[in-house]
Amino acid sequence: MKKVLILLSLVLLIGCMKDDDILSPIDNVVEVPESLVIGDLQGIKVESTIVTNEVKMNIKLPYTGTYRVKIRDISKQLISQEKLEASEGDNILKVYVSSLQNDGYTLELTDDNHDIIGITSIVVNN
Amino acid sequence: MKKILLLLVSVLCTISTYGQTDSQLAYSRVNTVTKVGDTLVVKLQYFEGKDADDVATAPTLYQFDFQYNNKLLNKIKTTWQPTSTSAQKAINSWNGYKFSIDSDKNQTDFDGQYASWLAGDASYTTNSDWSVERVTYQDVTALETGQEFVKYEFIIKDKANSNYSDYTNLLNANWANYKLSDGTQLGVTGNSTLSLSNIEGGDAGNVTLNILTNIIDSNIGDGTHFTYKIYNKSDIGSGNQPNQGATIVAEGTYDASGQATVTGLENDVEYFVWNWVDQSKDYMDNVVTVSDLALVFKEAIGAGSTPNGTSTTFDYYIQTFLANIYHDQAFDGKIDFSDSYEILAYLQGVTSDNTTYISKKGEAYQTGGNESTFGTVDNNGSYFAGIDATFKPTDSNKSFNFVHALMGDVNFSHSWEPDTEGTTIPASTQANASVARMSMAAGEKYQGEQANLDLTSELKDGQVIFTIGSEVQEMIGAQFNIVYDKTRLSLDDVIFDTGNTMTNFSNHIEEEGKINIGSFDQNFEATVKTGTPYKLIFVPTVQLQNTSGLITFKVNEGVKADGTQIKFIME
Lengths: 126, 571
Hints:
The complex is a heterodimer of chains A (126) and B (571). Chain A is of the alpha+beta class.
């Protein structure tokens, strides 16, 4: 009888909670513009290859954690690096290029251990 | 018996022709010519022959043809030399013909070639490079032997405008027709050609200049950032500066590879070239860094450590020139604390009241010279011998390598490191210099070492934090030139955690969104602390989602106690 009462209490408790509280986030629900949709499970994509001032980018991640977005010049030398916490799935962010010289660059998405997840290129035309 | 008779006839014939010699048509230059534009005077001369009786022949008709190369010679004047009033004289000229000899006869068998020409076995064919002159002289008496017929004057033309590479075949006699008064044809011989050598001057055609610098080799910039101005060497005064009113002979821009093709120069003329890098380039602010500071400080400390004051910590003579950014007197060639503290002040962004020669954006102090002599010193110890950019195009040399260097760039990061003999300082006069570099070859002493570093930006609690993480040991100095997006960020704070004895510096150029930070131990003892020695705090001036691209870094270098540059690698 005691066990039945505990079970009933649990049923009542769950019944009082909001749906959101019990649904685990199986996906990072972000509205992704069509131009930034990444078909694969992970990767990096920019809205436009030729960039003035700033451009939207999507980094699609396999799990929530710490990642790095790196900008490399033509000789693959690292010239800028952001470290960020991001969620599993799509993350719509920006690349700001005002302080970059007009040139071609590669954008590199890595995990915190520098293992590459995706690469794309941009051309800065400020 | 028959054989004996034949032998006798043969001997008699031989005896009867003994002493017979041909007359001569001789031609030679009268004066010395050395360069294009000089006037060449050619004399054509008669020398008598002998007949079978060993008596001088006495022709009364002298006629001959010769040809000259009209692409190399410009005929300007002819002057008859005999003064006889009874003589009949004629000179005929034809342009665009060349004599084709009878190849069965010697070219200098002039009477034979004459006979062949009459018979059609030798002829004139059209050839725009050659002109033919026919000289005819007839008198009642023979000329004295050695008598000149006529003098021709020609201007030496520039072979650059021709298909000829030299002046070895300028003029040939074709045939000669000397006759006695009774019509007897005489044998005539002579020299085969008139040639000149070592003719200088003339259009040098395409002259190639190559500019050598680490700006190109290290892909900091490319050759199009360099221009040249060429002066006549005679217009260059003291300090290799062009004299007032000096005319620029040629100027232009190098191509991306650092090569330029120059026209309008003359062979065998000395020129001087000044090569300039575009001082407006952003990388000019990266020329003088903490690595240069360390080298200059080390030299300032070590200078004069021997009574004769000749010891040095430098590896190349030219480093003294490049490091002497503060002149106590007009180029004193003395590296002391005046130089090192001026560089430190520059890195700290402190404006100096002194005139200094530190290369930076908008203010580059430039030098250079021929690759083969750059960085050498003369017997008097003058550095100017090593920054001489004199060159002289010649027929055999039309390509020249010049190097470029910037004042203050003591470690050659943006300059050319000397790579020829006579540029390195003997180890015997080096005191406290890098033992490692002493054993390295010229041109390879300043390659630097590499080490890993972690530079990242993060958005944290509404601030943009830029951290420099380092696990690099043995650095007595470090420098980071950072550019940030001044339209979105405002610098709030710089946090140093480099150790207690380091001299830290930060030079914030707010209007350009630049900040140079670093550290240096003037005693060459303390090292930059590992961990997070530098942290920059920025406040966003606009709403930000993240920080990608907001902060970039170009110069990231450290320096060891022996002056070795550490080039950081960021993963």
